[in-house]
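Marked as duplicate of an earlier ticket. Keeping the data here for the record.
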Amino acid sequence: MLNLFSSLITLGTNWLKGKQQLQKSKIDQEVAESKQKTKLISDARTNNHSWELAALSADRLASLRQFSFWLFTAPILYTVYDPEAAVSVWASLSTVPDWIIGVQLTMTGFIWAAKPLTNVGAMLAGKVR
């Protein structure tokens, strides 16, 4: 019984230490990002601070990019995992009309290009000023 109690206390202590380390690493990351932003803003010699700040901002399309990546990668991985069963997946995909594939590829291309184009737009806007 004493060993069980000791094990539970050790488990709880290790969990709390892990939570503290995670919190400390998040704070350290925020401090590093803040220092980098301050450095970029104060750097007047290079004219790149606006687009670099935009690149540091959160990527709102990250989940859509991951989904689109896995949407196109899943059939290939399934083919590697189970080639015989994947034949029916590829046969089903070949029955999809071309216009649906075109729309899907256009949407995916926009999702993948939207973030980089906003960075280019911010850079061009800064040069126009």
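See parent ticket for discussion. The CA atoms of residues 68 and 108 lie 6 Å apart.
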